[in-house]
Design goal:
4-stranded mixed β-sheet, repeat, Immunoglobulin-like, Cadherin_C, 39 strands, transmembrane, disordered C terminus, Protocadherin/Cadherin-CA, mainly beta
C-alpha cells in the first residue's frame, strides 16, 4: 500500500501558478468493497529567480509633475508560489523618489515610483535608479532592472479619466471583437497636446494583452482572445491615457473585468467499478456500479443531476421545461413518454392536455406521440410559469389512465430598454434643479430614477454622463443615478447647465436610453422660477393674481415718484424765494429787517492811531461788509456816536443803550 514517486516532480510544470498543487487518486479495496480517495500536495521550493521582462526601463517625467505622482514599473515574474514567490521590491537611494509596492487581486506584487520631491530639469537632467525584486526564500533570490529617468518639460495639462476604476462583466467564450468597456479621458489643452492616445500600462501582464484589445483612439476595450471562466474569473487591467504633446501627460485607470460563467462544460462520468452479472434475486439497494461525476462549471452550471436515460423501465411523474421568451410559435418543447406492459390495443397510448380551456390557446399536445407544442410567443414580463396536467390513457376496455404534471418556465431575454421615471421624458414641462453658487464638491443635486422591466442581470442599469455643458462640474453615480458636484462651484461657472445621462442595461445585446437634466446655479429658488414663468400652463388660474400684483406695484411706484417730484419742486421754490429776499436786502444801504439779524461793532485797539474800523456783520457768516473809515478822534465815545449816526437810528439807540463801557485805546 505504499505510494512512491515514479519520476522527478516539477511543481511549476504540473500546476503553474495554481496553489496548492495537488494530485488526486482513488484506491478500490475489494472483499469487502471500499473506495478510498487520496490527494498528494506538491510543495514548492525556491528554485526560480524573479525575472524582469527587460534589463532596462526608461521613463520620461516632466519637471512640472507635482509631488505625490505615481509611475507604474514593469513587474518581475517568479514561477514559484507562496513564500517563495515574488514578495517585495527595493529601490536604490535617491532624493526624489520612493517606492510603493501594491498587491493585485490575485496576490501578485507590483511596484510604483512615487515622486516625493519635485524634479528640476535645470538642476538635474536625468536620474539612474536600480529596482530590485526579491522573493521570500531563504536565502532570497533577486533580480535587478536599471531605470533611466529623463527629466523634460511637458504641457501643463495631463489627461484626466472620468473614473479611476471601471467595472465590466463579460461572458466566457464571448466572440472576438465584443465590446467590454469604454474608457474616457479629457485634456484641457488644445491641438496635439489635447489629443489623447489610449494604451495598456507598462505593468499589464502579457496574458491580458493577448485576451483584450484596446482602441488607441476611442478607448474601447474589446475581447481579443478566448475567455475561460474556469481559468480566470477576474481580470485587473491597467490602462493609460497619453496626450500628443512634446512631453506627453499621462493618466492611469483600472478596469475590473468579471468573467461570467457559461455552461460550456459537459459533466464527465467516470465508472469506478461495475459488478456484473447481478443475481436475479438481488435485494433492492444492492450496489451494481460506482460512478464519479464532475463538472468544471461553477454555481448552478456545475450542479449535476444523475438520472437513468430513457429506454429502460423507469417512469417520470413530472416535467420541468425552460423556454426562452419571444419564441417562435409552433415549436416543440417537450416529449412526454410512457409505457404500458399490455399488448395490442390495450397498450395503445393516447396523450391529452387536461384543462384545455385554460391553456388551449398556448399549448397543444400530439395525441399519438406526446409531443408538447408551444402555439404562441411567450413574454417573461407577462407570465413566468405555466402549470398543466397531461393524461396518458390506453385503448383497453375499460381504459386505464395516469396523469403527469408539466411546469413550463419562461426565461428572460433582454427585450426591454430602461425606462426613465424622473425626469419624465414624455412631458412638456421643464424639470430644473437648483444648486447654490459656491456649493462644495460631493453635494448631491438630483437623481435620475429609472426601471427595467426585464429580470436579473438584464435589469441592472448603469448611468453614464454622456454630454454636459461643463463636464468637470458634475458626475453621476454608476449604479444609483445620483448626480453630484465634482468640484466646488465658482463664480465664473455658467448659470445654466444641461446634462445628458446615458442609461444602459447589462443584457445581451445592451439596450439603452437617455435622460436630460437641467440645472440652474442661483442663490434662491425664485431666481429660477422667474426664468421659468414662460413655461407655466396657459390655463393657470393664478395668472390673474400675478397681473394684479404687478399692477399694484406699478401704481405704488408711480405715486411715490409723483410725491418725490412735488417735494423737490416745493424745496426749489422756497430756496429761490429766500435767495431773492437776500439779494433785495443787499441792494439797500445795509438795511436790516430788525435789530436781531445784524450787529454793528466798533473795532479798536490794534488799528493804526489815525483810523478805526466799523464792521457790518450779518447772521450769514459768509458776508462781512466794511462801512467806512474816519479819522480817529480823542473821544472814543464821540467817534462811535458819529459813526453810528451815519447808520439807522434804531440801531444807534440799541447799541448806545447796551454799551455801559467803552474800550480805551490801550485796550
Amino acid at each position: 500500500g505504499a505510494l512512491l514517486v515514479n519520476e522527478r516532480i516539477d511543481r511549476e510544470e504540473l500546476c503553474g501558478a495554481l496553489s496548492p498543487c495537488s494530485l488526486s487518486f482513488e484506491i478500490v479495496v475489494e472483499n469487502p468493497l471500499e473506495l478510498f480517495s487520496g490527494t498528494v500536495e506538491i510543495q514548492d521550493i525556491n528554485d526560480n529567480d524573479p525575472v524582469f521582462p527587460s534589463s532596462q526601463a526608461r521613463l520620461e517625467i516632466s519637471e512640472s509633475v507635482a509631488a505625490g505622482a505615481r509611475f507604474p514599473l514593469e513587474s518581475a515574474q517568479d514561477p514559484d508560489v507562496g513564500i517563495n514567490s515574488l514578495q517585495t521590491y527595493q529601490l536604490s537611494a535617491n532624493p526624489n523618489f520612493a517606492l510603493d509596492v501594491q498587491t493585485r487581486v490575485d496576490g501578485s506584487k507590483y511596484a510604483e515610483l512615487v515622486l516625493e520631491k519635485e524634479l528640476d530639469r535645470e538642476e538635474q537632467r536625468e536620474l539612474n535608479l536600480v529596482l530590485t525584486a526579491l522573493d521570500g526564500g531563504s536565502p532570497p533570490r533577486s533580480a535587478h532592472v536599471q531605470i533611466h529617468i529623463d527629466v523634460v518639460d511637458a504641457n501643463d495639462n495631463a489627461p484626466v479619466f472620468n473614473q479611476s476604476t471601471y467595472k465590466a462583466s463579460v461572458r466566457e467564450n464571448t466572440p472576438s471583437g465584443t465590446l467590454v468597456a469604454r474608457i474616457s479621458a479629457y485634456d484641457l489643452d488644445d491641438g496635439p497636446n489635447g489629443d489623447i492616445i489610449y494604451s495598456f500600462s507598462s505593468h499589464t501582464p502579457a496574458k491580458v494583452r493577448e485576451l483584450f484589445a484596446l482602441d488607441s483612439a476611442t478607448g474601447e476595450l474589446r475581447v481579443k482572445g478566448q475567455l475561460d471562466y474556469e481559468e480566470t474569473k477576474l481580470y485587473e487591467i491597467y490602462l493609460q491615457a497619453k496626450d500628443k504633446g512634446a512631453v506627453p501627460g499621462v493618466a492611469h485607470c483600472k478596469v475590473l473585468v468579471e468573467v461570467v460563467d457559461v455552461n460550456d462544460n459537459a459533466p464527465e462520468v467516470t465508472v469506478t467499478s461495475v459488478y456484473s452479472p447481478v443475481p436475479e434475486d438481488a435485494a433492492p439497494g444492492t450496489v451494481v456500479a460506482l460512478l464519479s461525476v464532475t463538472d468544471l462549471d461553477s454555481h448552478d452550471n456545475g450542479l449535476v443531476n444523475c438520472f437513468i436515460s430513457p429506454g429502460i423501465p423507469s417512469s417520470q411523474d413530472s416535467y420541468d421545461v425552460y423556454v426562452l421568451e419571444n419564441n417562435m410559435p409552433g415549436i416543440p418543447i417537450l416529449n412526454v413518454s410512457a409505457t404500458d406492459p399490455d399488448l395490442g390495443r390495450n397498450a395503445h397510448l393516447s396523450y391529452t392536455l387536461l384543462g384545455d380551456t385554460t391553456f388551449g390557446h398556448l399549448f397543444s399536445i400530439n395525441r399519438d406521440n406526446g409531443t408538447l407544442y408551444l402555439l404562441t410567443s411567450l413574454d417573461h414580463e407577462d407570465q413566468v410559469e405555466f402549470n398543466m396536467m397531461v393524461q396518458v390513457q390506453d385503448g383497453g376496455l375499460p381504459p386505464l389512465a395516469t396523469n403527469v404534471s408539466v411546469s413550463v418556465f419562461v426565461t428572460d431575454l433582454n427585450d426591454n430598454a430602461p425606462t426613465v421615471l424622473y425626469p419624465h421624458p414624455n412631458t412638456t414641462a421643464t424639470y430644473t434643479d437648483v444648486v447654490a453658487p459656491g456649493t462644495p464638491a460631493g453635494h448631491m443635486v438630483t437623481k435620475v430614477v429609472a426601471v427595467d422591466a426585464d429580470a436579473g442581470y438584464n435589469a441592472w442599469i448603469s448611468y453614464t454622463l454622456l454630454q454636459a455643458t461643463d463636464p468637470s462640474l458634475f458626475s453621476v453615480g454608476l449604479h444609483n443615478g445620483e448626480i453630484f458636484t465634482a468640484r466646488q462651484l465658482r463664480e465664473d461657472d455658467a448659470p445654466e447647465h444641461t446634462l445628458v445621462i446615458l442609461l444602459k442595461d447589462h443584457g445581451e445585446p445592451v439596450l439603452s436610453t437617455s435622460a436630460t437634466i437641467s440645472i440652474s446655479v442661483a442663490e434662491m429658488v425664485k431666481e429660477v422660477l422667474t426664468d421659468l414663468t414662460d413655461v407655466a400652463p396657459a390655463n393657470d388660474p393664478r395668472r390673474h393674481v400675478t397681473f394684479y400684483l404687478i399692477l399694484a406695484v406699478i401704481l405704488v411706484s408711480a405715486a411715490f415718484f409723483i410725491t418725490m417730484l412735488s417735494v423737490g419742486i416745493f424745496k426749489c421754490y422756497k430756496w429761490r424765494q429766500s435767495r431773492e429776499l437776500y439779494n433785495s436786502s443787499r441792494s439797500t444801504t445795509y438795511r436790516t429787517p430788525g435789530p436781531l439779524h445784524h450787529i454793528d461793532a466798533v473795532r479798536g485797539g490794534f488799528t493804526p492811531p489815525s483810523f478805526y474800523h466799523q464792521v457790518y456783520l450779518t447772521t450769514d457768516s459768509r458776508q462781512s461788509d466794511l462801512l467806512c473809515k474816519k479819522p480817529f478822534t480823542s473821544s472814543p465815545l464821540g467817534s462811535r456816536q458819529g459813526t453810528i449816526r451815519n447808520g439807522e437810528p434804531g440801531l444807534y439807540h440799541q447799541i448806545v443803550g447796551t454799551a455801559s463801557r467803552l474800550p480805551t485805546p490801550a485796550e
